[in-house]
Amino acid sequence: MSTHYSQLARITFVAATALLSTTAIAEQTTEEVIVLGEKQEKNIQDLPSSVALITADQLSDSTIQDFNDVYARTANVVSLRSGNESLFAIRGISVQGLSDNPNSFTAGVTVDDVALDNLSIRYGTMGVWDIQQIEIFRGPQGTLQGRSSLAGAINIKTQDPTYEWGGHAQVYYGSYDTSRFSVAGGGALIEDELAFRISIDEHKSDGYVENTTRDEDDYAGFERTTYRAKLKYEPAALDQLSALLTIAQTNNDVGDNPSARTDDPYSFEALSDSDAYHNIRNDSASLNVNWEFSDQLSLTSISTYVEDDYDRFDDYDSSQDPLGIIDQTGSSRGYSQELRMNVEVDNWSGIAGLYYSENTRHAAWILDTKYAKENAREQAYTAMTGPVAAGGFGLDTATADAIWGAIPTLIDIYQVQDSSYHIDNMAIFGEATWKATQRWAFTLGARYDREKQRRDQFTSTDVTTVTNVPPADMLLQALPSTSAEDVDTEYDAFLPKVAIQYYWTDRINTAFTAQRGYRSGGSSVNFADGRIHDFDPEYTWNYELALRSRLLDDRLTLNANVFYTKWEDQQVDVSISGDPRDKYTDNAGKSKLYGAEIEVSAFVTSALEIFGNVGYVKTEYEEFTLAVGSDIEDYDGNQFPGAPTLTSTLGVNYRHDSGIFVSTDVGYQNAAYLDNDNTRKSDAHSVVNAKLGFEQETWGAYLWASNIFNREYVASSFEPQSDVGIQDYTTAGAPRMIGGSVSVKL
Q1: 108-111, Cβ contacts within 8 angstroms, sequence gap of 24 or more
Q2: Mean pLDDT, the chain, as a whole number?
Q3: pLDDT tens-digit series, residues 181-223
Q4: Which CATH class is domain 3-745?
Q5: What are the domain boundaries of the chain?
Q6: What mean pLDDT comes out for the span 131-150?
């Protein structure tokens, strides 16, 4: 662990111990927070689930700019990309899992009741403006969330309209020509009956990567905009009824990911010769209607619609040589309907609901690149030496060797792929809690999930290399393939949950929970031959102990979870040959993981708050053996890629009556393997951030800095698929960034 982190930890611990032990007790207490992600409004201190909750005040007090920053400050949650993507892992499980399942991720992200599509989760990096709270659930959430919650779930709630007129705005400017303008506000259109809120967030930057081949200093830059409008209606004539309409649009126009040359990643220089961009637009609408029949019974209807459109152009080989490009488009259209009933009667509380969603996706891409002929050696020699009756050329080995030698090392290929998916998902779910005594509470829940999928796939591969050696050219023209397939699949899953909770006092309770989560099955395409392969759902069983406590007259909150998870029928990519395209997804893995999270927040005085968290997770493949061509890869006993065993954050907020505000935090993450072989690693690192400001009732001015000590570390890297010299395959952590901002409240 770094010197900076150790020093700050020691100072903070000594100060906290001394101050908390004095009789000069603070008047400030930790805030009671209501969690919404389990479809029932519950105090976080009564919730056995492991939830990291970030409030609007915590977001504004910190240097957090987007969700990659949120992940970096959350125990047992890590960002898997630094920069223009927003992939993450929860408790060591990547949101993509061990395979590229296009139909489902291992964790879902919901914004104002709208479930984001995989495209938006991966490329639609979100800002944190005008957000009420972020809830990160660690561990399976299958009973209430369903298909995409094997590892956890993220629930985001933005600010709702109020009947009081008001608003707030901010502007800031920082390193690398980074600027941001944000505004939000609204009020009553009809007193105590109809209110609105509008939010605008525009964020852009040149980024910190310079492309020296193209002489572009904004190669990894971005422009992100979010527009949101909300309308709340509570008719005076029907005081039991309330409705909330939300309409939002997010545009992410970003350059290449901030990968740099592998031989000098901290130069932040990219060599790619091609233009690069990833553009995604998300449009969504949701209507939440609630009818309270009584204090004990309510009915909620949630209707959503979402559209995603994606456009990508990239340098396929990531080198300064013109060896290939990829041109990709994608779109998604989906809607959902949920009906649920909430009940609270005497010592019983519960929820029951029905859910239906329909999603249609389309993806197309063109790959124009150089292809290493060694990847096709097995296929080529089978064709050359195979008997004529079986479709081969019937050549002897010497002749085959001569023809093979006439073919250049790199072959020009042009591949076109077009896929469409249609997914119907239906579920019935319920959960009930019985408060048997003042101390004991028992919870039982279950969900039955059923899904139908249809996939249409077209793949065409052409070889454009010509050798002017007739036998060699005949072989090259025998390698291309064209295929078209249609596949229908159907899956179902039963997802139970049981929890037992014991209240030692009204401020301390412990709980045990067992819950099943799953990720739906689907179909994958072997891009080498265009064939479709089905695969089944994968499942986790999670066993968890929880502690919830509020101590020292509610000035100290200490929460902890300890977990053990079994992961079965893992969806993994199975390689057929040395060709990186020659693979498909199958259920061929079994793993386990265990660990803990501890989160603490303490008000030492009314002006001084100390907060921190620690996450530990140990991941292990128990059964994961793959045949790669003639080789056997045995990953048994290895750790998951992108799964650091230790993550932690320690921070201090100080707010004086005069208006002076200081916030600082340091985050630590130890090294993590970056591949299943456990041969490549990221760097262990600690990053220190700080924010200094002067605040008055209606305005504030701030200076901020992230990665103050300019810590250099490798965040991720990829193994090159071809030998073409130096390539942009390493992503270093973001360098030091400084800036200033002004905020205004109306």
Answers
A1: 108/145, 108/147, 108/148, 108/149, 108/153, 108/154, 109/153, 109/154, 109/156, 110/37, 110/153, 110/154, 110/155, 110/156, 111/156, 111/158, 111/248, 111/284
A2: 88
A3: 999 999 999 999 999 999 999 999 999 999 999 999 999 899 9
A4: mainly beta
A5: 3-745
A6: 91
